[in-house]
Amino acid sequence: MNNRFGSVRVKQLPETLDCEYARLLLSELSKTDRPSIVLDCSNMRQMDRESSLLLLRCLEEAIKSNGDVKLAEVPNGARRVLERTGMGRLFELFDTTADAVNSFRRLPIDLGSHSFDSLQTSENAA
User: Fold this and answer.
1) Rounded to an integer, what distance in angstroms lies between the CA atom of residue 65 and that of residue 35?
2) Domain containing residue 107
3) Is residue 73 left, alpha or beta, with left meaning phi > 0 and alpha meaning psi from -120 to 50?
4) Which CATH number do you get for residue 104?
5) Sheet holding 36-40, edge to edge
6) Under a CB-based contact definition with an 8 Å cutoff, are residues 68 and 62 in contact?
7) DSSP alpha helices (H): ranges in 1-126?
8) pLDDT in tens, 44-90
9) Residue pLDDT, tens place only, 79-121
10) What is the pTM of this model?
């Protein structure tokens, strides 16, 4: 799928993340300009320290290239770990992979096309 950042890549994470998979994923991210990655977490059975660090490294690599990583179908246990550790604030979490992919297609709000006078007028009217 194409969007303004290029193609959105969906990566199905395995049940258990190992060093080899992490190395391949990080290598791919470092070679991509403006990566738009959705990590499908539906197969993950646990979110341990290594998994958490891998997710952070993926996000770091994507940001270095002006990209983003979004998480989809995160199991409840893993979602709780993300929320408890504060990592849930770093990632956008989506219930479905399709929702995560489509989120890359949304255009940001262009405040430049709105006049601040009209915003103030509407606030004063309230």
Assistant:
1) 7
2) 2-125
3) left
4) 3.30.750.24
5) 2-3, 6-12, 36-40, 68-72, 92-94
6) yes
7) 19-30, 49-64, 76-85, 97-103, 116-125
8) 988 888 888 889 999 999 999 999 999 999 999 999 999 999 999 99
9) 999 999 999 999 999 999 999 999 998 755 555 544 444 445 4
10) 0.77
Q: Counting every residue, how long is the chain?
A: 126
Name the token pair of 42: 């539906």
Cα–Cα distance measured from residue 118 to residue 107, given in angstroms and rounded to the nearest whole number: 22
Q: For residue 31, is it left (φ>0), alpha (ψ between -120 and 50) or beta?
A: alpha
* Mean pLDDT across the chain: 82
Q: Can you read off the two tokens belonging to residue 58?
A: 């993926």
Cα angle: 67, vertex 73, 75; to 5 degrees: 125
CB crowding 35-51: b at 16 or more within 10 Å, else e: bbbbbbbeebeebeeeb
Q: What percent of the chain has pLDDT over 90?
A: 49
